[in-house]
Specification:
The chain is an alpha+beta fold and about 60 residues long. It contains 2 helices and 3 strands, in the order βααββ.
Length: about 60
């Protein structure tokens, strides 16, 4: 299995590497492991859904 760093994943997911680190710390990135000070993320990991927005908005 190939692992990528937070900087490499930030380019793929179009979010900051700091945000990816926070997601990893919260356990929201499946398969992420911490090696020293660096997070290693599987290359086939799925970007977590942003919890700040509702996916299914109901219009009245």
């Amino acid at each position: 299995m190939e692992y990528l760093t937070t900087v490499e994943m930030s380019k793929r997911w179009n979010i900051s590497s700091r945000r990816i680190g926070v997601l990893c710390t919260e356990g929201r990135v499946e398969g992420a492991i911490k090696k020293g000070k660096m997070w290693l993320i599987p290359s086939d990991a799925v970007k977590p859904v942003d919890g700040r927005f509702k996916v299914n908005k109901v219009e009245a």
